[in-house]
Amino acid sequence: MRYGKSRDAFFDNIKARKAGETTRKVGFPKIKPRQKYNSMTFTQAGYELEGNRIKINSIETGFSFHKHREISGVIKTITLKRDRCGDYWICFSCETVDDAEPKSKTGQSAGFDYGNTTFLTSDAGDKIASPQFFKQCLRTLRSLNKALSRKVKGSNNWYRACGALTRHHRKVARQREDWQWKLADELCTAFDTLCFETLNLDGMKRLWGRKVSDHAFYQFLQILEQKCAKHGKTFVKIGQWTPTTKPCSDCGYPNKDLSLSDRQWTCPECGSHHDRDINAAINIKRAGLAA
């Protein structure tokens, strides 16, 4: 099952790169030893489920789990997973009837530009800053890393320090993801069409490193796309090479002298004064609606 999914993802990536939808290159899947796996997946056989207890037939062992809500629909797969903190999770994939009500139509559309200083800038001039959860916890993470380095590798204290560091990283990731889900819901409520541009995030990471990783922009786009599909909204991604930053949003004049440090600029052709990010967001919206 894992090999089949990774093989499909490999060929999907080739098609996406040929279409210019992404620059990310995925290698052909390799067979890994079973010791490297921290999860196991069952289809509709190989287990017995009774209430909040599951019995795995292959190992003849039962496990009790905390069921935070009732399971609805037909169970297709069950995945048992051990995370890096040592906690065990059970994930149910179910086939259900989609009864989610689409959000009400607003008739509004928006383009958004991603930036390092401001997470998102809309074509209307609204700026959304990222909380940068990793940056907020940097001092604590440094302290935990130092504590880990002072322990003897393989000792009980070393494993305890590893667990403390891993749990803190998990907390940061959960805070970031929670904020992104809430932001995606707000945007889906406010707009019917949302336009974004495809970015070379790997190249941006090489330039700005930790800050780009802390924003997790690619993860946010995946969440937003899922939200839009669920609530009947339109999600548009324009091509990576579509000019959005340098063209004037009023007259279309390409300002080739514009540098990365220029946050405000005036069009030499029509005299319009622009905020760099707002101008790019307007061009992104225009290109997205025309696509």
Structure characteristics:
38% helix, 291 residues, 13 strands, 3-stranded antiparallel sheet, 5-stranded mixed sheet, 3 domains, 21% strand
Question: Please, could you describe this protein's structure?
Answer:
- This protein is of the alpha+beta class.
- The chain folds into three domains: 1-29, no CATH class; 38-99, no CATH class; 109-290, no CATH class.
- 38% of the residues lie in helices and 21% in strands.
- The protein contains eight helices and 13 strands.
- The chain has helices at 2-18, 133-136, 138-149, 156-190, 201-208, 210-215, 217-231, 276-290, and strands spanning 39-42, 47-50, 53-56, 61-64, 74-82, 88-95, 109-114, 120-122, 127-128, 193-197, 234-238, 264-266, 273-275.
- The strands form four sheets. It has a five-stranded mixed sheet. Strands 1-5-6 form a three-stranded antiparallel sheet, with no helix packed on it.
- Helix 3 (138-149) runs antiparallel to helix 4 and helix 4 crosses helix 7.
- The relative contact order is 0.11.
- The model has no long low-confidence stretch (mean pLDDT 89).
